[in-house]
Write a structure and sequence with these properties.
40% of the residues lie in helices and 8% in strands. With 197 residues, it is mainly alpha-helical. The strands form 2 sheets. The protein has a two-stranded antiparallel sheet. A two-stranded antiparallel sheet has the order 3-4.
């Protein structure tokens, strides 16, 4: 099977490689020094300095597909750009506003957020002026491990058979994220994201 990137993706790849060579690779030592010396609860100066340059270069929010907020790239088009961002430096995705957990949280807000939530949270996330988080904890577990994520599905036989998906999360430092349990009436259970300032 022959696979070749589109001219649009080839152009983005070329621009990403040039940006990485000019701004990211030469600043890796600066980033690590600032992390070691700085306040871990404050943004890293070099990242904040490079964000406007990435935005001006048109290398910003490329993760959102077919959206008024992003570049409209498919996953196949976005994947080679992720490969370039992830080659060496842990801070490169943040410079391009393409780092987790912000990307996933922005995707949830684009798809499910109210206008008020989009105004208050999505717009600053898209601008790169705030960061977000993802947290969850199981009530019967100490700490977190991927094998401790669990849910139970039960078939309820009544007049109209339904499937119930049960999952429970508990508050984690004023943040609560869980999965809403809903009967299967032709609808898929929707994730619930509780937003706390």
């Amino acid at each position: 099977m022959h696979f070749e990137h589109s001219p649009k993706v080839k152009d983005l790849q070329r621009r990403f490689v040039a940006f990485m060579r000019e701004h990211i690779y030469p600043n890796e030592a600066t980033f690590h020094r600032q992390i070691a010396e700085g306040d871990r609860w404050q943004p890293t100066a070099i990242v904040e300095e490079l964000k406007p340059k990435a935005r001006a270069a048109g290398l910003w929010n490329l993760f959102l597909p077919d959206s008024e907020y992003g570049a409209g790239l498919t996953n196949v088009e976005y994947a080679p750009l992720c490969e370039i961002m992830g080659r060496v430096s842990p801070f490169a995705p943040e410079v391009f506003n393409c780092s987790a957990p912000d990307t996933g949280n922005m995707e949830v807000l684009v798809r499910y957020g109210t206008e008020t939530q989009r105004k208050q949270w999505l717009e600053p996330l898209l601008a790169g002026t705030i960061r977000s988080c993802f947290a969850m904890k199981r009530p019967c577990m100490q700490g977190f491990a991927k094998h401790s994520i669990y849910a139970a599905a039960r078939l309820r036989a009544n007049l109209r058979p339904t499937t119930m998906l049960s999952h429970r999360s508990v508050p984690v430092r004023e943040t609560e994220i869980g999965l809403q349990t809903v009967p299967n009436r032709g609808q898929i259970p929707k994730p619930v994201q509780t937003i706390h300032p």
